[in-house]
Structure formats: structure tokens, C-alpha cells
Amino acid sequence: MAVSALAQERLCALRHEIARIEGVLPERLAAPSADGQTADGILMRRSGRGLPDGDCLPSQVEPLDALLGGGLPLGALTEIHAPTARAAGAAAAFALALGSRLLQREPQKHLPLLWLGTTEAFSEGGLPYAAGIRETFGIAPQRLLFAEAPKLGDTLWIGEEAARLPDLAGVILELRGNPRMLDLTATRRLHRRAQAAGRPVFLLRQSAEQTPTAAPVRLLVSPAPAGLRQTLDGPLRDSLGPPGLELTVAKSRTARPGTFTLEWNPHERRLQLRTANQPSAQAQPAVSGSVVSASVYRPNLAQAAGQVVGFAPERRRAAAGG
Questions:
Q1: Residue 216's closest CA among 163, 171, 252?
Q2: 3-state SS string over 148-163?
Q3: In this structure, are residues 224 and 247 in contact, taking their beta carbons and an 8 Å threshold?
Q4: From CA 124, how far away is CA 178, in angstroms rounded?
Q5: Which helix (H) or strand (E) holds 171?
Q6: Cα(280)–Cα(274) distance, integer angstroms
Q7: Binning pLDDT at 50, 70 and 90, where does residue 267 land?
Q8: 3-state SS track over 52-103
Q9: What does pTM read for this prediction?
Q10: What is the C-alpha separation between 222 and 271, in angstroms, rounded?
Q11: What is Dmax (Cα atoms) for the chain?
Q12: H or E stretch including 134?
């Protein structure tokens, strides 16, 4: 038993040294305990320093946190991808959910959260709405700073400088597409600034393909059908419950891939897992009958696509002859 424990300890120390020399991304290693059994894993940082699993931001969704080893790393760059343009709202909502959790950790410090982005990204995804964010996510306007830069280079520079400021709780950096400037070097700089400060930088990407970056974790977020509103008597038929999103862990050195359907509870201000016995609103049978009443002037719908319906028959012939 003693020989086995000594061998495990030497192997763990060797892995630590290799990780320190190679400068690898965070990696989970098994450290032997005093009784010869394998203890809980630790997270390896670039410097080779081991950090406990508690040095992370839990999402409060137990299966997701268990998969990630306790949550997302606090002092690190985390990618949040919206694969399509229509998924930008869901990805932004998930980033704000993480920001809300981040601000709840140390409410007495009253540190603000910086949301930074390019003009192109905000033109496509929309600007933050302070009243809605306060009502839905519980983030007061004075704790959410907003900055917009027209050029990508300026945005990245602001993000690097903001990541090391001690007066910020974290940074959300929103970009669009796959710009050439956002390469391994640029993301490594953001990741190192987040590591040095011990605060997270969430790289929110719209309509972006998965490319190599220095972020230890990459999450894909897309909208999911809303569930039914829950009442004391169970799900309320033909109703809409909290908004849903589908989250996929696409990249992580400490976790296996996994997909979760989550909901945001605006009353408790937290993410929650949608269970299998919670049907979505789309799963309900369609309501019989007309959705809206027919128009007074056009009681009959067009019979086939391509017909001109904007003119009376005599005007239609005149238009065709002209």
C-alpha cells in the first residue's frame, strides 16, 4: 500500500512538472491522499499551481456543475458561442445569468460587471436594456457598465485592460463572427489577464464557428422551446413558462461533452434544469379553429403561391398588359 501511494504521489508530481514546463491549459489531475486512496481532482493552471475545485463559479445546476468539476473557472477565459444569429439572444441571456451569479457571490463589494462589444455585434444582437435586465436577472443598472467600440482592435484592447482592473467583478466581451484578429495569441492574452486577476472573462460570440482559442471551456448555447408554466396543480396547459436554452459543453480539459436543457427562473434569479417530465409548449396539441378572424375585404386566402393579390381583377389585367 505504501509503495503504491508513493508511486502515485511521484506520478502526480511528474504530471505537475510536465504541465508547468509545457504551459498547458487547465487539466484535472488525481492527487493521492495520505491513506493511499485517490483524492479529489485539482485544477492545474498554466503556472503549474494547483487550485482547489471550489475556485470556480457554480451555475447552481447540479448535473452541469458536476460535469464541469464544480463550475466554470473564475480566473479564466470562457467562450460562450451562439452558432447562429438567431441564437445570440439565448447566448447573451446565459452570459447575463452567469453575471448575475457572479454579482451574488460578493454583494457587499458592489463591484460592477462590464459588458463590452463591437458596434457590429450590438447592431446585430441589440443593445442591453437596463430595465429588463434588472427585472429579469436582478442586476441593478449601476452594477452593469456598458462600452461599445467601432473597431475590433480597440475592443480587444479595452477587454485586456478591463480584465485586470480590481474594481470590476468580471467582463463580458461580445464579438461577431470569426475575425482573423481573434486568434490564439489574442485569446491567450485575455486568458492570462483573467488568470492574473482571478476574475472571469466571458467571450460571447455571435454566429461563430469553433476555432482554436486559449479558453479552457467552450459552451454552445441555442434557444430551446419554452416549457409550460408550473402551478400548484402541475403544468398549466397551453401556457408559456420560463424561457429555455440548450447548453452544450463543446470543449473542456476537465469534463466530458454534455448537453443540457436549462430554464431561467426570474423569481429565484437562477438557472434550473428542465426535467424529462416537464413538457415543452411546442409538445402540446394545436388549438383547433382559426387563429385570427378572416379579413372583411379578403375573406378568402390565396390558393397558390405566386399569385398577385394586391390588385382587383380588372387592375391586375391592366398591369399585365402594361
A1: 252
A2: EECCHHHHHHHHHHHH
A3: no
A4: 15
A5: strand 170-176
A6: 9
A7: confident
A8: CCCCEECCCCHHHHHHCCCCEECCCEEEEEECCHHHHHHHHHHHHHHHHHHH
A9: 0.70
A10: 15
A11: 99
A12: helix 130-137
pLDDT over 70 (residue 314): no
Considering the chain, what is the average pLDDT of its residues?
Answer: 78
Position 161 confidence tier, pLDDT thresholds 50, 70, 90: very high
SS3 271: strand
Q: Phi and psi for 316 in degrees, rounded to 5?
A: -65, -40
- 74 close to 57: Cβ distance less than 8 angstroms: yes
Tell me the per-residue pLDDT of 77-101, one tens digit each, with 9 for 90 and over.
999 999 988 899 999 999 999 999 9
Q: What residues contact residue 235 under an 8 Å CB cut-off, 6+ apart?
A: 227, 228, 229, 241, 278, 279
Whether residue 114 contacts residue 147, with contact meaning beta carbons closer than 8 Å, is answered with: yes
Q: 3-class SS at 196?
A: helix
Alpha-carbon gap, residue 48 to 195, rounded angstroms: 12
Q: Which residue has the cell 400548484?
A: 232
C-alpha cell recorded at residue 288: 383547433
**Residue of 17, 54, 77 lying closest to 252 (CA atoms):** 77
Spatial neighbors of 198 by CB under 8 A, at least 6 apart, are 74, 75
Amino acid at residue number 308: V
Please state, in angstroms and as integers, the Cα–Cα distance from residue 150 to each residue in 120, 277, 312, following that order: 7, 46, 49
Neighbours of 137 (CB within 10 A): 18
- In the structure grid, which three cell numbers stand for residue 210, read together? 469553433
Instruction: Compute φ and ψ for 266, nearest 5 degrees.
Output: -70, -15
Confidence of residue 52 (pLDDT cuts 50, 70, 90): very low
* Contact predicate 132/284, CB 8 Å: no
Query: Would you state the cell numbers that stand for residue 177, as one nine-digit string?
Result: 463572427
Please identify which residue in the block is written with the cell numbers 463550475: 71
